[in-house]
Amino acid sequence: MLGLLRRITQEVTAAQSLPAALDIIVRRVRRAMRAEVCSIYLVDPNSQDYILMATRGLNSEVAGQASLKPDEGLVSLVGRRAEPVNLEDAHSHPSFHYLKGTGEERYQSFLGVPIIHHRQVLGVLVVQHEDKRRFDEGEEAFLITLSAQLAGVIAHAEATGAMTSLNSNAKPEGDLRYKGIAGSSGVAIAKAIVVYPPADLNVIPDRKVDDIEAELSAFNAALLAVRKDIKKAGNRLSKHLSSDEKALFDVYLKMLDDNALAYEIEQKIRGGNWAQGALREVIQFHISHFDRMDDPYLRERASDLRDLGRRILSHLQENAPNLADRFSESAIIVGEELTASMLGEVPLDKIKGLVSVMGSGNSHVAILARAMGIPTVMGALDLPYTQLENVDMIIDGYQGQVFTYPSDTLIESFQQIVDEEKALEEEYLTLKDLPCETCDGHRLSLFVNTGLSADIWRSLDRGAEGIGLYRTEVPFMVRERFPTEAEQVAIYRQQLEGFAPAPVTVRTLDIGGDKALPYFPINEENPFLGWRGIRVTLDHLEIFLAQIRAMIKASSGLHNLKILLPMISNVAEVEDALALVRRAYAEIKEEGYDVKMPEVGVMIEVPAAVYQVKQLASLVDFMSVGSNDLTQYLLAVDRNNPRVADLYNSFHPAVLRALLNIVIEAQHESISLSVCGEMAGDPMGAILLMAMGYDILSMSATSLPKVKAVIRNITEEQAQLMLEQVISLAHADAVVQTMNRLMREANIERLVRPSKSKSSK
Ligand code: PEP
Ligand code: MG
User: Fold this and answer.
1) 66 vs 645: CA distance, rounded Å
2) 514 lines ligand 1 (CB under 6 A)
3) pLDDT tens-digit profile of 68-118?
């Protein structure tokens, strides 16, 4: 059963279009359930009618036309109830409605199950029999399981426009809108450039090319190189193989014959796709074919094909232009899963915006984007990104939405927002040298979070009073091996010197979770609860000590270093780390450097630390709250997973209560306390944190002027009244809505973002 379910899902996923996918479903389900009829109805997003999209058993000529009103027939009953309806005599049911032209009158028994994706009914899957007999529980369970698995595939196919291709006038219309998650505020209007990780055939996008001959010759060169590789491998191993086994290499070579795969790929290239896209199309098509076979020997041939595809791809990619060369003008980077290292490959002034299909607003790539002020949308799960190369698009980083093929009217209205943003930026610049002080004289210190060296100058330009969090994993990520101690000294020195005499808080390496080093892979089932942050570095003393030594040496003569320890979940970790810092300091001092013992602090970002503020305070000099991870761990919501992004909310009452407890405890222990998570850079968050008693906030350089503008326009008393009104609310949404209203009434909403960006077309 499991194998059958898997094979059907694989087949459907590999289908080239929505109609093809639906046809596979009805064909395969009818056979698997030995039903006389299997049909699929999808909800028309405009009329809400149920349209018969595909059928085996009923009259397929009416598919695409026959439809039921939202309150008509058993199909819509399944949809309205969002649960299965299983009847042995459908005709006698009060909701039965004969759908003309389908030939349905012969069938008595009926089982319909809803197709639900993200709480929304997309359609109904139906099986029918002529006999009066109820489908048994096993059959019902099978259909429910299959429908749940297929819902995502259907939703994706629908959202990507495949649904419209059923109609004859199928070319993409303007203003196609895709929902995602706000990653970094701002609006960008530009063409898309699609990026993908190397050597992965599945993520290769389609790309229209004009110079077909050039693509053909690149493909033929790659083919020649692969043939050579295979012959060489065959010869090398020939001594050790029997003639049967040697024949396998000939099979390989035959697959690459001019009449076989190569011919098909060439045809696709002649059709206008680039060589890599044509290769993906053909290889995927054949793989799905082999995967479907019941014979295990033949199914294994899929892995040969996969291997061949990868080999050809790697030769094609060897000579492909690198990412930076593809940017003749600035563009929006679109990819399935954008990573921090990809950003490092493109000159920053060429990046207008970012769209990542995976990830969410608290993924590290989004945090970097905010630091660099690049409008970003994350988690745009339904975006047909492989088809968007060079397509015009608008991204709205305020609302987390993407528009492709935008109309002139839409471009105009978003251009207005871009202009207003510019004006606001200029207004912010005037604040650079003014203190961050409320109208009634309460002073707050605004620090900056950094990662790249470019951040230093942007932060100084914006009036940052120090670095509250330097994420050292960023320079580690953009390399191909661990930086040496001397290299690290140079990197840290830039930050320390740039800000001296102001304090610079350098955090020890916080890898693991969603921050992977390409040269130090950590593969875990549950990475956010695994080997991460201080847990890794305490297990690798050579990495930890080299880093601490580099930090202390880099502070020589400046004396403005503070060391921050991430992911602390128990007191022993702090004791161990402190002993190592003291040891490194003593050694460096002995070596004759002009250094002082740095202040050492811990991040409060794991719930356990919230309840040990007192014990931790007795060991360290300062504390910094990581609201990003604290939210993730307190709410048990992966900060990186778009599927649960709606649940990730730093304004959840439990998070607010934890933040309040931390500050009360810390004040009791008279220990210096700051917040360096993203909440500090959100004007709404900054107001509430200030009202709770936090007086150092650390944020991206982009957010800093915005937060300063807001704080300078309210009184401390106003902020406290706002906190009082929201702290005992039960829902995160109520907190946000109330704060929005209070900020509007206090006349500070205008400072936060330009005229509300459009939430729909
Ligand atoms: C945090 O968790 O809030 C934080 C500042 O650290 P990071 O986002 O790098 O995990
Ligand atoms: Mg963290």
Assistant:
1) 38
2) no
3) 999 999 999 999 999 999 999 999 999 999 988 899 889 999 999 999 988
